[in-house]
Design goal:
Distance between the termini: 43 Å
CATH superfamily of the largest domain: Vaccinia Virus protein VP39
CATH class of the largest domain: Alpha Beta
Radius of gyration: 19 Å
CATH architecture of the largest domain: 3-Layer(aba) Sandwich
Number of domains: 2
Largest sheet: 7 strands, mixed
Helix content: 25-40%
Order of helices and strands: EHEEHEHEEEHEHEHEHEHHEHEE
Number of strands: 14
Number of helices: 10
Strand order of the largest sheet: 10-9-8-11-12-14-13
Length: about 300
């Protein structure tokens, strides 16, 4: 949880520009000190403009970003802020989201209702990635339901938990053995908190680490379902390690990259024995489903 934030930069964009700005922030902001909040200006409007708020103790960084936005003809403003109650802030911004069976709502919401056929996921807002609103998260949730119709999974791994939303969905949908990793400390703490409010914290193995070669991960392998909603480069760099902890017929669900990157990932994994099954395309963000046929 971010404790010392002194400045906020706010701007508004057309939803068609969302992918561009999400990629810009991936390489600009510091996950230990900065935070990005993104939400619809009008939750009831399908193609509503998006509001971005960037929080940082570094005013000069925000001033540089403001110049960048100005060159793109986007108006923005910087203001000094006081301490934020993140939970309250989140509850005021987020509406409930329904994606297939999954119903996602703010962690402190007291009025959420769901049917016996729905899977509730309660998420507190922090700077951990994953609120259910981004296309990559939604693509993964849709992929979970698709693979759930095909087979039963016994041993599952998620790489890079972010807010914990996908691990919560995996545990509640499959009720199988689940191992989860997260390398970023702030996201690790965000996941831990959300695991607790969803009452799965004592039912999973959760590790703060970046390497898939760690003895904890290897010891729990092989996995028959592996999920990674991260970025294209780490997905590619992890390929040989993922191959080592998988087995024949292991399903991979990979996301966090755009349409222009997905063929490169398919080709990389095909080389080590994973075949393409299908993909989900939401706003040019791709979620891949691959299956391991044989070791190469």
């Amino acid at each position: 949880m971010i404790k010392k934030i002194n400045w906020a930069l706010e701007f508004e964009i057309d939803p068609k520009q969302e992918q561009i700005y999400d990629l810009v922030f991936e390489g600009t902001l510091d996950t230990n000190f900065d935070a990005v909040i993104k939400y619809k200006k009008n939750n009831k409007q399908l193609n509503s403009n998006l509001i971005y708020q960037i929080f940082s103790p570094n005013k000069s960084k925000l001033l540089e970003l403001r110049i960048f936005f100005s060159n793109k003809k986007i108006n923005s403003r910087i203001k000094k802020i006081k301490k934020i109650n993140w939970l309250e802030f989140s509850d005021n911004l987020k509406s409930e989201i329904l994606i297939g069976k999954f119903k996602i709502f703010p962690g402190i919401s007291k009025n959420s209702n769901y049917t016996n056929f729905q899977i509730p996921i309660s998420i507190n807002f922090t700077n951990g990635f994953g609120t259910g609103e981004h296309a990559t998260t939604q693509g993964c949730l849709m992929a979970f339901e698709k693979v759930n119709k095909r087979k039963k999974f016994i041993n599952i791994l998620e790489i890079g938990s972010g807010s914990g939303i996908l691990s919560i969905a995996l545990k509640k949908l499959f009720n199988s053995k689940l191992t989860t990793t997260e390398s970023d400390l702030q996201s690790y703490l965000a996941s831990a908190g959300n695991f607790k409010i969803n009452k799965i914290n004592k039912k999973i193995s959760f590790f703060h680490q970046s390497s898939l070669s760690n003895s904890n991960i290897v010891q729990n392998s092989p996995y028959d379902l592996i999920v990674a909603n991260i970025l294209a480069n780490p997905i590619i760099s992890f390929s040989s390690q993922i191959n080592d902890i998988s087995k024949k017929n292991t399903i991979l669900i990979l996301s966090g990259f755009n349409y222009n990157q997905h063929i490169r990932i398919i080709n990389k994994y095909r080389y080590i024995g994973f075949v393409y099954k299908m993909h989900i395309n939401l706003d040019s963000w791709i979620t891949l489903i691959l299956e391991k046929r044989k070791s190469i």
